[in-house]
Input
Amino acid sequence: MIKPDSMRSKLYPYPVETLKHWYITIVGGQSTDLKPDQIGVNREALAKNTNIVPYEDSVFVSKLEGKGMPLVTKKYFTVVPLDEASPDASSKSPIGEVVLPAQDKIQRNWFLEPLEVGEPVILNNVLSQRYYSGFVHALDRLIKKRSGRHSIEYK
Output
């Protein structure tokens, strides 16, 4: 017996976890539904295929075969789930593609090379999962110490 469409489990081929907390997906496009510091992925694909916690986890996006950037210069984006509340962005991620903020919201230095629709990219969530907050606090303390500014004590 074939189940009706409403009862079938929809398959989402993206994002695909290749290494722990590294996901490959393709660029679905850009949307004004997203803030400059956000990227979006279909809500169901995000839940079924990743361990990313929406609105909490940050990722950096890089080309599959792109040039490397120093870790401290990478731009981190908050991951948001896309659904009917963001119709433009959601329409660009039907199978789990990543949707970027609109071009006018993206600063030129966030990516060394422009990303094209359909291009494979990596969503790297490693620092967010394990080290990001501690790394950021340690880096903040080091910069403030070297610049002579007083730092807030992190515990």
Remarks:
- The longest helix spans residues 126-147.
